[in-house]
Amino acid sequence: MEYLVSHYNYWVYILLMMVGLYAMLAKNNLIKKVIGMSIFQTAIIVFYVSTGAKREASIPIIAHGHGHDAAHTVIEAAHYANPLPHVLMLTAIVVSVGTLGVALAICLGIYRRYKTLEEDEIQEQLHDSL
Amino acid sequence: MNSVIIFLIVTGLILFLATTVGLLRFPDFYSRMHAAGKGDTLSSLLMLGGLALYEFHEINVATLLVGAKILLIAVFIFMASPTATHAITDAGYESGVKPWQKEKTASEDEG
Amino acid sequence: MIWQIDLSVLSLIVLCGFATIMVKDLLSAAIIFGAYSFLMCLLWTEMGAVDVAFTEASVGAGVSTILFIAAAYQTTRIVKPRKSGRIFAKIVALAASVAMGLVLLAAQTNFPGFADPESPASLHLSPYYITQTLADTAVPNMVTSVLADYRGFDTMFETAVIFTAGLAVIAILRRVKHIDRCELPDPYTISAGSQDNIIRFVSRQLVPFMQLFALYVVAHGHHSPGGGFQGGVILGASFILLAITYDIQLVQQRMNEKWNILLGNIGVLIYASIGFICLLLGANFLDYSMLSKILPATDPVMARSHGMLGIEIGVAIAVMAIVVTIYLNLASNGKLDKGL
Questions:
Q1: pLDDT score for C192
Q2: Model confidence pLDDT, tens digit, residues C32-70
Q3: Distances C43 to A21, A35, C10 between C-alpha atoms, Å
Q4: Distance between CA atoms of residues B8 and A7, nearest Å
């Protein structure tokens, strides 16, 4: 029971990753595949951010510190959430939106060329042209 | 002061529930937008008002700043949410969504 | 860290995730994906990751949704089912995802419990960052100080990646038609976009406040959640709001293509040149404490804070220009004449 309560969140993240992977593999429409890729990315980001959470900890901003006159107060590491995963995931989110823009641009380019966004129709046209 | 805060937040919650029920049960696009737009805006404003009032339990510069920021968010929602509802309803009208007509049943025809 | 909120928000997230891939209409899928992003943002606020939640709210729920809608507008809204081999594809995909899920489930038995303060991730390097950030850099927001100072190289290359993404979108999509600049019609009479006076008025009133708020977010990133990326995305979103309610021509008159690419360049250049100035002054690349030699009346600790502000400004300029570029090119399919 203790194990269930402390580990349930990992199962939900793994479920989200499975949903994203299923969408990337099984869906016919290209933009649905891109949505699946986004779901997979956000599931991984949730996993990393959750490793930085701490029970009864506050946000990683030191509340009473403005300038260097507050250097005498003692700062305990267990009172603040771990900032390192937050930093890495900030980079990941911004890079993921860049990747999303390029993926959607490629989808638009494919639509311009093949007049369809469905994977099986594109493969038919590719086989016909060979 | 606490009772006022609880009253505001609980009223906001009940109105949110009413909005959701209306969104699911109304027969037509336009009446659903009615429920969504009005209910959403009012409930958000009530809950934000309750939260801003909670900040004013002790009055000093920090809590005044936080309360003022929450009230600014409330002003923004007051301006932007009805405009968004108007935009969606306009888009529905331009696309030709017809309003719901009550069908005449057989018993009404005879009576 | 209230586990009831955690569990309910997580179950709603899974529901939205299932719904967004099963819906048969691309516009609905984009909007449900926006709701999924907002629920993620709520989850991260509840876990204490406020900077990440702010970034996801502006980038994921704001800009990603409108990019999906612009892509669905330029292609097609209808999702057609597979013509043949439907069951086979679903079974293969299901088998692959379940296999991956089982491998990950086997791996997670060794993970530390959720929200454990003694987990290995919180024991080795991060206590140094938490306890020393005020003494080293005089910036209370630990995430900003780690992002811009302790891990400044990552952020510089991330800005370069965003710039490259904008260039890639231009390279894939842009179709140039040589039009005489004097021939562009007056944007206030173009009929694409909303004709309605209420929507145009409200968006015109909101845009200056959005931009002011974005500048506040960039400048106040040292003391509150915020920073360069969030502010840059909000600045870009204000231009996207103008493009949606009026027309792309209006945004082109204010931020045309030449200025977009120039500003993207200038953003990365500001970042790299601040690092280079530190190199010229005798320290390592991106070691801001040496800036105290040229900035008047600052000691090395405050110089790091000011150096961080400088690079955040560079990041904001670059991100704004690239977000506007990606949207304009996606919404008009490269032609930049009329669009969503």
A1: 52
A2: 999 999 999 999 998 889 999 999 999 988 899 999 999
A3: 22, 20, 7
A4: 37
Cβ proximity of C301 and C217 under 8 Å: no
Measured in angstroms, the CA of C291 and the nearest CA of chain A are apart by: 18
Enclosing domain of residue B6: 2-97
Residues C163-171 have a mean pLDDT of: 93
Looking at CA atoms only, how far is residue B87 from chain C in angstroms?
7
CB C19 within 8 A of CB A35: no
Question: Mind listing the domains of chain A with CATH numbers?
Answer: 2-55+80-129 (1.10.287.3510)
C117 and A55 within 8 Å at the Cβ level: the answer is yes
Q: Report pLDDT for C38.
A: 94
Min distance C310 CA to chain B CA atoms (Å): 26
pLDDT digits (tens, 9 = 90+) for C116-161: 777 777 778 888 888 888 888 888 888 999 999 888 999 999 999 9
Does residue C45 lie within any of the structural domains?
A: no
In a domain, C119, yes or no: no
- Decide: residue C90, CB within 10 A, 0-12 exposed, 13-18 middle, 19+ buried: middle
Nearest CA in chain C to B91: C194
Look at chain B and report how many structural domains it folds into.
1
| Partners of residue C151 in chain A, C-beta under 8 Å | 87
Give the chains touching C; criterion: ≥3 Cβ pairs < 8 Å: A, B
Has residue C307 been placed in a domain? yes
Domains held by chain C: number: 1
CB pairs B-C closer than 8 Å: 20
Residue type for B12, please? G
Give the CA diameter of chain A: 75
Q: Smallest Cα–Cα separation from A12: which of C36, C5, C11?
A: C11
pTM for this one? Answer: 0.90
CB within 8 Å: C194 and B90:
yes
**Is C202 within 8 Å of B90 when comparing Cβ atoms?**
no
In a domain, B28, yes or no: yes
**Is the pLDDT score of C115 beyond 90?**
no
Q: How far apart are CA C159 and CA A52, in angstroms?
A: 24
- Please enumerate in sequence order all residues whose Cβ is within 8 A of that of C97, keeping only pairs 6 or more positions apart, or say none: A18, A19, A21, A22, A25
C62/chain B closest Cα distance in angstroms: 14
Q: Which residues of C touch B83 (CB under 8 A)?
A: 198-199, 202-203
- Write out pLDDT tens, residues C223-238: 888 888 999 999 999 9
- Which range marks the domain in which residue C241 is found? 147-340
Which positions in chain C touch B90 (Cβ < 8 Å)? Answer: 194, 196, 199
Structural domain contains residue C204: yes
C205·B83 Cβ contact <8 A? no
Residue B105 lies in a domain: no
- CB A26 to CB C135 under 8 A? no
Per-residue pLDDT, averaged over C197-210, amounts to 90
- Which own/partner pairs from C30-38 qualify as long-range (CB within 8 Å, at least 24 positions apart)? C30/C65, C30/C68, C30/C69, C30/C72, C31/C65, C33/A35, C33/A38, C33/C64, C33/C65, C33/C68, C34/C61, C34/C64, C34/C65, C36/A39, C36/A42, C37/A42, C37/C61, C37/C64, C37/C65
- Concatenate the DSSP letters of all residues of A22-46 into one string: HHHHH-SBHHHHHHHHHHHHHHHHH
Average pLDDT taken over every residue of chain C: 86
